[in-house]
Specification:
Helix content is 45%, strand content 15%. A 7-stranded parallel sheet has the order 3-2-1-4-5-6-7, with helices on both faces. The chain has a 5-stranded parallel sheet with strand order 10-9-8-11-12, with helices on both faces.
Amino acid sequence: MSAQKLKILHVFRAPVGGVFRHVCDLAEMQAEAGHEVGFICDSLTGGPFELEKLAKVEEILSLGLVRTPMNRPIRPNDVGAFRRVRAHAASLGPDIIHGHGAKGGVFARLSAAAERRAGRQVATFYTLHAGSLNFDPRSANGRLYFGVERMLELVSDGLIHVSAFEAATYREKVGIPRCPAYVIHNGLRPEEFQPLASSDRQADFLVIGELRPAKGIDVFLESLRLLQDAGRSPSVMIVGGGAPEALETYPRLAEELELKNVAFHPPMPAREAFARARCIVVPSLHESLPYVVLEAAAAGMPMISTNIGGIPEIFLGEEARLIEAGNPAVLAHALHDALDDLPRLASEAQARQQSVRERFSLAGMAQDIEAVYRDALARRRGEVSQNLRSAA
């Protein structure tokens, strides 16, 4: 691979959740490889946990960290946000502008198009992380978002999907891409496969992640009520941040359901939370390739998960263990079985850990993405590229 070092700007909206983890991991690997890397993201999202992570990653961002207001839905003030992203990109003169998530993907690709009109050679990529794909294509929002996605293909050097499910969903809802498209799975660090720190494991079940409807928190709470009605009251940890209304809604629902032994905690490192529970539950209604499932698998955590999105790609060969999403009765049954036979889930988790170790590597993810970058730059410069590996 060429020794040329790249200037890479990552554009994303919210510094929370799996998207944030992905961008930070990728940036760290790119900086280790000698590239210059910068971030621009939303200034309205995130709490103390996210601020600490941003401060840590900023140390390796030679192109700096800039935060500016970016709303989740489409709003008139998106014009101002785009202008700030565009001006920042122009000041850096990057080789690569890589957008993550729907809003980041729009701002990144439009900024790259503006750079090209100014005569600069820039390649631009969009990693969806599900992005707008949860919309119904028949809805007004779906037609709007998918129309934008279709238009922006024309200025994109590539779409990077984190799962085969996501790639198939894009083709189904948006159309066959008119630019190159790749499936590159999220990757894990070797230390994530180390044994968890010893703990008293005071919680029977753990749910961890951003508190929002797509994560199925309400379904999980309803399943606990069914379990409680059947005479079982497991201890439960729910860990995560979210919008202010979410931080009020779910504890209030737990009170309304008169649930016992349910405690809500602010965000904390995943492995710290894993060490405090016997089994993780992933009740999600929508996902692409969730980091929490990968992290739990790497840690050897017994796990109950719904059968949605790219999760079956993690549970390769054991997809039958996944459960129906959105069904509190099915989830309550799985929780009941786990309480009665946790050793079985632990044994399954050990086998899953080895499978994930072999298939999800952070180093491999970073290498494949860099190969995609270099291939696009070579095409823009009229060169013959020999950079692409297995990413296509």
